[in-house]
Amino acid sequence: MSTEQEIFSPLPLDFYDQPTLQLAPALLGCLLVKETSEGTASGIIVETEAYKGPFDQAAHSFKSRRTKRTEIMFGTSGSTYTYVMHTHCLMNVVSGGVDVPEAVLIRAVEPYSGLSLIHSRRPKAKNERQLTNGPGKLCKALGISMEDYGHRLDQPPLWIASGPDRDKFVTKAGPRVGIDNTGEAKFYPWRFWIQDNRFVSR
DNA sequence: ACACTGATAGACT
DNA sequence: GTCTATCAGTGTC
Asked: What would the CATH number be for the domain defined by A4-194?
């Protein structure tokens, strides 16, 4: 059993120096923590998706498209890539190292701490599952926004820690979600989740 | 199952 | 300047 301090202690930046397809499943079971003036909330990462820039038609950085939005993906691993879609914000972890525009999308978490804060931020959730079982929902629940764009994930106010009870789950892989019209890329099994966890988005 | 929402970037004229 | 698509979520049919 880990101590409270170990559970919440930020992972070092070099943790993100591993191949994106290895990092995505490695993030499962880790704790995503956000500190705000309202308090601190956290959730265990239970679902991720890998996006491999230049060769991945589903990625914003396909063919190394370098723009204001994708710029952070060309930077160092372990930075935050936030992106606004419709009315919601989605969070990605930059990987691949400098000049390799890859990232891992955090698709779902299981609420771990700051439950009352999470509930107050997600008044429309009709049950516990709906608090954080989607990429836009978890950002709202934890208070993650465009202000976190470019933030390094080894320090407050936003970081990822090793989390409790590591390795006590089975990892599954399958096709990614919400990426129609992307040809072959649609079928790559680059989505990873914790088997039987009820907060997985689908 | 379906449509409405509506921020922002990127492509195009 | 204008048009369109987007790594969703929600309410309604």
From this structure: 3.10.300.10
